[in-house]
Amino acid sequence: MSSVKTPYGRSKSYPTPEDEVEVAVIKISGNIIDDEVKLAAFLEKFAKIHGRKIMVHGGGKLATKMAEQLNIPQQMIDGRRITDAETLRIVTMVYAGYINKNIVAQLHKHKCNAFGLSGADGDAVWANKREKGAIDYGFAGDVEAVNRDLFITLLNAGLTPVVAPITHDGEGQLLNTNADTIAQELARTLSYGYDGYKVTLVYGFEKKGVLLNVEDENSVLPVLTAAHYEQLKEEKKIFAGMIPKLDNAFAAIDSGVKKVIIGQAEELPALLSGDSGTTIIHE
Amino acid sequence: MSSVKTPYGRSKSYPTPEDEVEVAVIKISGNIIDDEVKLAAFLEKFAKIHGRKIMVHGGGKLATKMAEQLNIPQQMIDGRRITDAETLRIVTMVYAGYINKNIVAQLHKHKCNAFGLSGADGDAVWANKREKGAIDYGFAGDVEAVNRDLFITLLNAGLTPVVAPITHDGEGQLLNTNADTIAQELARTLSYGYDGYKVTLVYGFEKKGVLLNVEDENSVLPVLTAAHYEQLKEEKKIFAGMIPKLDNAFAAIDSGVKKVIIGQAEELPALLSGDSGTTIIHE
Fold first, then answer.
1. Using CA of residue A262, residue A88, residue A60, residue A122, what is the dihedral sign?
2. For residues B33 and B46, is the Cβ–Cβ distance under 8 A?
3. Which of B92, B113, B166, B173 to mutate: most A Cβ within 10 Å?
4. CB contacts, 8 Å: B121 with chain A
């Protein structure tokens, strides 16, 4: 904080880079949600992160299992679920209900004041139903805006938001939405402006980071630049599932997010300290 | 607000009865949640209530239906569900997921800034697992405390809390909890203290109010006093299901809640204006 004396003898303060509020946005995916033991260990680590933090979680296999048990056929195209009305009901129950509330209850056990929400709650994440193209994704949402004020209100109240990947269109319709994109838009929104937060965005997934050789878990790239990413794509060394994730990561860095790291959620403290995973940098 | 001049020339303010913040706590039960058309009409009316408001919702038949489809046998004793581990999973999904998020999304359509939560979120409602007595209710919770500060933070942020009847024990365990009791404890907690809110608590259920003759929908008592209630119980004119609800209602009045009304949620504006339902008064 830099102080300037005003004519009235009181000092007026302007924010300086040192004043920036830090926040960690941690996204976890199905591989950790589906494994009770891994999830419990991860949550204990997450609870211990000092300072402001937000979790965004994906879905996992429970929704697919529930759909099977209820005889609701599931259609996946390129790893994306086609969300018909019955499937929307299931993902709303499983993601915003079962997974979200279990994560929240466990975090409280570790003295983390977690607060679960979907994108509908307090208009946290507003989305548009994806338009029918060659594929009709059904009730899938594309993020339109993240409610910055709401997240800041929750953080300032000492709460740790835990976000389920269900959004709404503001007209009463819930929408199934990609959690990677929610995490990216959230990180971007919080970084925005002269009073923006200093955001670290972590994408937790099943690999130890971006692999140079997908067969070799030890070929993790410690750093990935935009130019190198383009080159690896051309050389077809980075494939299908990774591309949307990395596109999200670079979009985040390009829009003011301070740090983006991709790696195994289990290694959370090492990811944040830069000792594990791949750090995404623009230059 | 009454003002007093202090020696420093600045006035100091003390709250007076006119300053009391008003809040309406509205509990709705299964009969309205299960009926899509009735629910939609109710939510439109709820959204129009001026000022601060909170909704507490019960469960409805969807959980029972889901349990049937998933072949999980349900046991009910005296109208209370026995919550085994599988059933807890279902009620968490259905109450805190499907029902809660659909209500929230619909309220936003009507420009009500709804925010859904369970008792685990932000430690909103802390409960103890009911001890095994003659009956083992399983993962059923008895409310220990409602987090007054959290609800006031949400209300002050312009949000309308929508509470699902799932609580937690602070040790990672979710618990299925009676929504009438949550509503009562919430109303009581908000009323408490010299800066307590002026709370109106509405119990919406399937009847038009407390009936003098259960067969006659037109025998609604406009007012019920504690003495009259005792008399009606002795005369066996008030039965099983009504007794815990009325006990909750009188407990609320006895602990400082300003107004308690029981009636049909569909008639919400008339309930609040005193033109419908039964008003519970102590004397």
1. positive
2. no
3. B92
4. 101, 104, 114-117
ipTM for the complex? Answer: 0.91
Overall average pLDDT of the B40-48 stretch: 97
For A98, name the nearest residue in chain B, comparing CA atoms only.
B93
In 10 A of CB B136, how many CB atoms? 13
Number of Cα atoms under 13 Å in the Cβ half of residue B66: 24
Structure tokens at A9: 């003898």
- Cα distance between residue B182 and residue B209, in whole Å: 20
Pick from A94, A172, A174: CB nearest B93? A94
- Whether chain B has a CB inside 8 Å of the CB on A89: the answer is yes
Closest CA to B155 of B182, B181, B205, B117: B117
- The answer to whether residue B195 scores a pLDDT higher than 90 is no
Please answer whether residues A83 and A35 qualify as being in contact, where contact means their C-beta atoms are separated by less than 8 angstroms. no
Residues A40, A42: Cα–Cα separation, whole Å: 5
Structure tokens at B154: 């949400």
pLDDT band at A164 (very low <50, low <70, confident <90, very high): very high
Question: What pLDDT is stored for residue A245 in this prediction?
Answer: 87
Query: Which pTM does this prediction carry?
Result: 0.92
Please give the pLDDT value at position B15.
55
* b/e B224-254 (16+ beta carbons within 10 angstroms → b): bbeeebeebeeeeebeeebeebbebbbbbbe
Residue where the block lists tokens 């095994």: B132
Name the token pair of B137.
């209710």
pLDDT score recorded for residue B18: 59
Chain A to chain B, count of Cβ pairs less than 8 Å apart?
123
CA nearest neighbour of B114 among A123, A186, A149: A123
Q: What is the DSSP string of chain B?
A: -EEEE-TTS-EEEE--GGGPPEEEEEEE-HHHHS-HHHHHHHHHHHHH--SEEEEEE---THHHHHHHHTT----EETTEE-B-HHHHHHHIIIIIIIIHHHHHHHHHHTT--EEEE-TTGGG-EEEEEPPPSSS--BSEEEEEEE-HHHHHHHHHTT-EEEE-SEEE-SSS-EEEE-HHHHHHHHHHHHH-STT--EEEEEEEESSSS-BSSTT-TT-B-SEEEHHHHHHHHHTT-S-TTHHHHHHHHHHHHHTT-SEEEEEEGGGHHHHHHTSSSEEEE--
A181-185, B14-18, B137-141, B159-163: least confidently modelled range: B14-18
